Amino acid sequence: MMNASMQSDLESLGCTVMTGKKHYKIRLFGDSRYQATMAKTGSDRRGGLNLAAEINKIMF
Predict the structure, then answer these.
(1) 3-class DSSP assignment, residue 22
(2) What predicted TM-score, i.e. pTM, was given to this entire model?
(3) Which residue from 1, 13, 34, 52 lies 20 to 30 Å from 60 (Cα-Cα)?
(4) Mind listing the pLDDT tens digit for each residue in 2-46?
(5) Is 30 helix (H, G, I), strand (E, B) or coil?
(6) CA dist., res. 10 & res. 28, Å (int)
(7) How far apart (Å, rounded) are the C-alpha atoms in residues 17 and 28?
């Protein structure tokens, strides 16, 4: 779950955070090639680990 502090930290790293109805879209430097989707409400305890793995695969 994203809070204002986390969003501020991501933006200070150069990410753009866009909000939708059920998900957040996080883009590095506003470039759609480097985008990850984060659920607003997590479904299980591995959600954060899965998101981190997705970000690593897309951005690095």
Answers:
(1) coil
(2) 0.76
(3) 1
(4) 889 999 999 999 999 999 999 999 998 989 899 999 988 877 888
(5) coil
(6) 9
(7) 9
